[in-house]
């Protein structure tokens, strides 16, 4: 009885998994076909595995450069968010006072504001100071990403005993040293969560870069993909090859850090 | 550390500066601009509530608001049903549990823009060719009507977000005391009874979290909307976020768009505050 149930569930799960993967399958197999082949048949495997579409897409997307841009912006932004949010959360959790409570509340309340509500003045103001560039973009990511990160760090810091701070201070360490040598290493699990949540968000973000980055050659993957797709709307074979290329880095990241990613995302949502 | 220490302010300075310049100042400026005739270049004059009066007569805006609401309600229900079902499946007696989780969760990591393009291909090309083979007329012309655009968005979002919601339900299901389930099984409770009287009450908090998460994500949707339907045909699948964007950057009506953005903020904030309220009430009960 129990075993039979097992197999039914297993088969059901397997079928659902195939259904879930079907979009990726369709994208992948059609990216190797010619325009005519896609017109005739979108389901079966390609007659031959032809990489021509990929060569064109690779060049048109300026792939290595676009990939580098995405990596640069994501890594720098995430490192800054981690460093500055952890420091801020530390200050707010260690100096208990009305002021700290108010500031913490302001950071949390800022999470309520949807991007579209600040988008127009943000772009105008930064435009006036000629900050619509990658530096400005990274600074904006710090502003938008700080709230959730501070919230997560603050929660974790409340579970770190203050006697650690005191012991280190007595041994002659200053604030900076106490934080970086004693406290920050203890926060590693939450740092992983903060990093993952911000990496996923910033890597995939389209709207903000589309408003801020306007020099050719500094586009991120989603931004470049949007222009590329616009140019090749009726040429699905090229568009699909481009989409496959765009997804590959994410899939690699997922394979490497699968456990941390699922844990990070669920912690971020539940807290 | 005390609030009058220099170190306190040095630790806080970078994020305070960024939050102020990126979120707080634009938000306050935005509220101010929404009462003017600002067009991005000239500050414009003070027009009082005119923009707000106009937007409640603006059919395109009201249509987008209605479309977004319908979309959010349907998505929230579907995503939660699918997400919970997947969670029950992978926490049940299956050996491929880990592999299944990995698979169902995968779409979440990929950007909405890219997923929208992939599904555009599926709805337009694959649906059409499958429809031809099995002779189903209804699979032709997807995304070219308001209804197919609506369901296209719902399918895309359910496929993408169900795995995310699954992960949240799993966190609660796995935190459930196993002895409780085993004891009830020995006592002869049926699968349905176990779900109804033990599992359901214990995962109830997960419902609140998941409901509001999907609700606010659906309501704020932009990328998928842009890449899947682009708002078409004839702006009929345009959601609020996109409508605001187009008012601002296509029609250059900055102040007017900003008034819509303020209304958008109020709605999103209300959703979030209701969630906080519901959570607080739950805590008291427990």
From TrEMBL, chain A:
PROSITE patterns: ABC_TM1. This is Carbohydrate ABC transporter permease. Belongs to the binding-protein-dependent transport system permease family. InterPro entries: MetI-like (IPR000515), MetI-like_sf (IPR035906). It is a multi-pass membrane protein. Residues 67-257 form the ABC transmembrane type-1 domain. The keyword Transport applies. It is found in: Cell membrane. It holds the Pfam family BPD_transp_1.
From TrEMBL, chain B:
InterPro entries: ABC_transporter_permease, MetI-like, MetI-like_sf. SUPFAM superfamilies: MetI-like. Residues 65-275 form the ABC transmembrane type-1 domain. It is a multi-pass membrane protein. Keywords: Cell membrane, Membrane, Transmembrane, Transmembrane helix, Transport. It comes from the Bacteria. The chain crosses the membrane at residues 7-33, 71-92, 104-128, 148-173, 194-215, 261-278. Pfam families: BPD_transp_1. It is found in: Cell membrane. Belongs to the binding-protein-dependent transport system permease family. This is Sugar ABC transporter permease.
């Amino acid at each position: 009885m129990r075993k039979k149930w097992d197999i039914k569930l297993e088969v059901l799960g397997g079928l659902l998994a195939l259904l879930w993967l079907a979009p990726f399958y369709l994208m992948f197999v059609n990216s190797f076909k010619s325009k005519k082949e896609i017109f005739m048949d979108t389901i079966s495997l390609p007659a031959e595995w032809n990489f021509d579409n990929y060569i064109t897409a690779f060049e048109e997307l300026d792939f290595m450069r676009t990939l580098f841009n995405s990596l640069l912006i994501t890594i720098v932004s995430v490192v800054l968010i981690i460093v500055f949010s952890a420091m801020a959360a530390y200050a707010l959790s260690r100096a208990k006072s009305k002021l700290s409570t108010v500031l913490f509340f302001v950071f949390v309340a800022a999470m309520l504001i949807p991007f579209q509500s600040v988008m127009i003045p943000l772009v105008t103001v930064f435009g006036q100071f000629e900050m619509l560039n990658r530096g400005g973009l990274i600074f904006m990511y710090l502003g938008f990403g700080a709230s959730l990160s501070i919230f997560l760090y603050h929660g974790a810091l409340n579970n770190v005993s203050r006697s650690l701070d005191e012991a280190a201070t007595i041994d002659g360490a200053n604030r900076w040293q106490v934080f970086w040598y004693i406290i920050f290493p203890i926060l590693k699990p939450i740092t992983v969560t903060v990093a993952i949540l911000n990496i996923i968000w910033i890597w995939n973000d389209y709207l903000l870069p589309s408003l801020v980055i306007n020099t050719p050659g500094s586009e991120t993957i989603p931004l470049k993909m949007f222009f590329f797709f616009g140019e090749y709307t009726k040429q699905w074979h090229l568009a699909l090859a481009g989409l496959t290329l765009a997804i590959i880095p994410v899939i690699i990241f997922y394979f490497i850090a699968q456990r941390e990613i699922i844990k990070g995302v669920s912690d971020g949502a539940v807290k | 550390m005390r609030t009058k220490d220099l170190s306190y302010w040095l630790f806080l300075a970078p994020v305070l500066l960024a939050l102020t310049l990126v979120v707080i100042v634009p938000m306050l400026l935005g509220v101010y601009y929404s009462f003017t005739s600002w067009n991005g270049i000239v500050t414009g004059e003070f027009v009082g509530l005119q923009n707000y009066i106009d937007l409640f007569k603006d059919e395109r805006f009201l249509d987008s608001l209605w479309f977004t609401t319908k979309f959010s309600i349907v998505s929230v229900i579907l995503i939660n049903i699918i997400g919970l079902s997947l969670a029950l499946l992978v926490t049940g007696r299956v050996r491929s549990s880990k592999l299944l989780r990995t698979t169902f969760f995968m779409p979440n990591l990929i950007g909405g823009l890219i997923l929208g393009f992939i599904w555009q291909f599926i709805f337009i090309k694959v649906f059409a060719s499958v429809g031809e083979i099995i002779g189903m007329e209804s699979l032709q012309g997807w995304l070219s009507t308001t209804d197919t655009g609506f369901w296209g968005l719902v399918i895309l979002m359910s496929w993408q977000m169900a795995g995310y919601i699954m992960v949240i339900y799993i966190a609660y299901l796995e935190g459930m005391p196993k002895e409780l389930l085993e004891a009830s099984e020995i006592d002869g409770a049926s699968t349905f009874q176990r779900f109804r009287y033990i599992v359901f009450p214990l995962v109830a908090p997960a419902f609140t979290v998941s409901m509001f998460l999907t609700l606010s994500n659906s309501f704020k949707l932009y990328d998928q909307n842009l890449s899947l339907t682009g708002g078409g045909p004839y702006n009929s699948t345009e959601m609020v976020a996109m409508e605001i964007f187009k008012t601002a950057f296509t029609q250059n009506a900055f102040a007017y768009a900003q008034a819509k953005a303020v209304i958008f903020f109020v709605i999103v904030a209300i959703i979030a505050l209701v969630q906080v309220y519901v959570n607080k009430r739950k805590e008291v009960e427990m």
